[in-house]
Each structure stands twice: as structure tokens, then as C-alpha cells.
Amino acid sequence: MAMRNVFLALLLGGAAALGSAQAADGMAAHSRPADARVYIISPADGAHVGPTVTVRFGLSGMGVAPAGVMHANTGHHHLLVDVDTLPKAGVPIPNDAHHHHFGGGQTQTTLHLTPGTHTLQLELADAAHVPFDPPLVSKKITIHVK
Fold first, then answer.
1. What are phi and psi of 10, to 5 degrees?
2. Which domains does the chain have, with CATH numbers?
């Protein structure tokens, strides 16, 4: 029982320290600079591509940090594939076939897509995969897979 109390005290102390670090960093849970911009570098909107396509992510006005790393003005990418409605504000972005997480701080990925027309859009989220407020999303692009 004593070991459990020590563990609980360490856990709560770590959470308090994290909260203090966030406050000191000046970062509200979901805030972002007003001039920040996320965009898809490639492929170009309207591109005709093969079934294996590399998508390169761009970001300005903020930095990229892995999920779980809380620093002011940073986040990590999520690639939305064939998504019509943005993920709900205030809750973590889903992790499924249409919502790809790049919590390691990656700035590109290779997709394997079926032939046809697909849409791609980036959304930047905070350390807990929660979208910023207001959302930081790229222009949605359309690609055509041969």
C-alpha cells in the first residue's frame, strides 16, 4: 500500500509540473498563433498520381513537436483522407483509415490509395491530438489515382 501511495504522489507531482510548465510556456491547451498556416507541399491540387503517393506537409508560424510534448506554438500533423467534415473541436482526432496521425512529428508520409478521386487535407493538433481553436487546417486538395 505504501508503494502505491508513493507512485500516486509521483504521478500527481508530475502532472502538476507539466501544468506549471504549460503555464510558464504561455500555452493555453488549444491556442495557436493567428498567423500560423498548415499546407500540403505535394502532391499538387488536381494531380494525377499512381496508387503509391508521397504527401509532404508544410507548416509556418509554428513548430512541429511529437505528440505528448507540450511546447508553446507547436503541434503535430494529422492527414485527413476523403473526410467531408472536420473532426469535432475539443476532442482528440480519431485514428482510423481516414484520419492518419503523425504523432512522431513526421512531415511526410507515403499513402497507398485505390484508383479514383481522393481528397487530402491536413489538420494540426496539440500534444494530446486535440485540434487547435480555431482549427488549423490546410486547403483541401483533390488528387486522381490511376
1. -65, -40
2. 2-145 (2.60.40.10)
The residue with greater pLDDT, 37 or 10, is 37
For residue 105, give the C-alpha cell.
512529428
Contact 108/54 with Cβ under 8 angstroms? Answer: yes
**Burial degree of 1 (CB within 10 A; 0-12, 13-18, 19+):** exposed
Distance CA 74, CA 59 (A): 10
Is the whole model's pTM more than 0.85, yes or no?
no
> Phi/psi of residue 107, each to 5°?
-120, 15
Torsion of CA 83, 54, 65, 8, to 10 degrees: 70
How many residues in the chain? Answer: 146
Please check whether residue 86 is in contact with residue 113, taking contact to mean a CB–CB distance below 8 angstroms. Answer: no
